[in-house]
Amino acid sequence: MSFDFSDRGKNPVVENIEEWTKANENFRTTVWTGEKMQMTLMTIQPGDDIGLEVHEGIDQFLRIESGKGLCQMGPSEDKLDFEAEVADDFAIFVPANMWHNVTNTGEEPLKLYTLYAGPDHVPGTVHPTHEDAENDPNEQ
């Protein structure tokens, strides 16, 4: 099955979210950016992570479609006092202003999608690798 991975935000979209997520090979692919919400697909390689981050004023939802990992959250980047193992079909809810990270602890890519309420990335953002994401001036 072939998917359109362009950012089709502000247009109606219907996709099989599990197949869409599993088909994504990029670290991050922004596929829908609306006025108050954004969705990205992510593929985290074994041993890699999404990157310790905080979204000021933005709640976040992540859903694991395949793989396994470790979710960490806390009130500051040096106090991640919440930890939970995650795997297929798990949902992660990150409150606004909460530091968080998800690390792939398995041997296969960790495939997930995430919803930001509101948008967090520039519409159409694609980062083929974690390094690309870290070096993107729009992500600073």
TrEMBL record:
Location of the Cupin type-2 domain: 41-115
SUPFAM superfamilies on file: RmlC-like cupins
Top-level taxonomic group: Bacteria
The protein, known as: Cupin domain-containing protein
Native organism: Facklamia lactis
